[in-house]
Design goal:
Blueprint lengths: L16 E5 L2 E9 L7 E10 L4 E7 L3 E12 L2 E7 L2 E3 L4 E4 L5 E7 L8 E8 L3 E10 L29
Parallel strand pairs: 2-11
Antiparallel strand pairs: 1-2, 2-3, 3-8, 3-9, 4-7, 4-10, 5-6, 5-9, 10-11
The structure holds copper (II) ion (CU).
Copper (II) ion binds next to strand 9.
C-alpha cells in the first residue's frame, strides 16, 4: 500500500552521482584547497536518500586525524560553526553540504589539500552502511558552483571561529 509515495522527484534537478550505498546517492564530493600549514579543511557534497530516513553519522579519511560534521550559521552577523553528531537524511530529500552551510571538516590535516588532487573519504550512514568516495580538491576560493552563496568567511582560516572547542 502507498508504495507510490516513494517519489524521487522532490529533490529537483538530477544530481551527478559519484557513489551509491543502499538507497543513498552521493553527488559531487569536493574539498577546498588549504594554505600551507593549515590544520583544517572543509569538505562538501550532496546526499540524496531514496530509502527510509537515514543519517550521515560520520566520516574518516587518510588526509586528516579525524573528520567532523559541522553546521554553520549567521548569528548576530558572526559566522558560527558547531559540530553536529549526525546529519539527517529524510526520505526523498536532497541534503547539500556546501560552503556557508553544513559541511565536513578535516581536522589535523597530514598535508595541505592541493587543487587538482583527490583523496578518499569513507562515509558512514546509520542504515545504508559505509561507502568510500573520492573528493576532488578545488581552488581555495571555490564555492561549489552557482549555488554557492557569498557568505563564507573568505580568507579566514576555517576553524578559527569554532566555539566550544574541546581541547
Ligand atoms: Cu567547520
Amino acid at each position: 500500500m502507498q508504495q507510490h509515495m516513494q517519489q524521487q522527484n522532490q529533490a529537483g534537478a538530477a544530481m551527478a552521482v559519484a557513489a551509491k550505498v543502499g538507497q543513498v546517492s552521493i553527488g559531487s564530493p569536493w574539498a577546498r584547497a588549504t594554505a600551507p600549514g593549515a590544520a583544517v579543511g572543509g569538505g562538501f557534497l550532496m546526499l540524496e536518500n531514496a530509502g527510509a530516513d537515514d543519517k550521515l553519522m560520520g566520516a574518516s579519511s587518510p588526509v586528516s586525524a579525524k573528520v567532523e560534521l559541522h553546521s554553520m550559521s549567521m548569528e548576530n552577523n558572526v559566522m558560527r560553526m558547531r559540530e553536529v553528531t549526525a546529519i539527517d537524511l529524510p526520505t526523498g530529500k536532497r541534503v547539500e553540504l556546501r560552503p556557508g552551510g553544513l559541511h565536513m571538516m578535516f581536522i589535523d590535516l597530514t598535508a595541505p589539500l592541493k587543487a587538482g588532487e583527490s583523496f578518499p573519504v569513507k562515509l558512514r550512514f546509520e542504515k545504508a552502511g559505509e561507502v568510500e568516495v573520492t573528493f576532488k580538491v578545488e581552488s581555495m576560493g571555490a564555492m561549489g558552483g552557482p549555488a554557492g552563496s557569498g557568505m563564507h568567511q573568505q580568507g579566514v582560516p576555517h576553524g578559527a571561529a569554532m566555539p566550544g572547542s574541546k581541547n
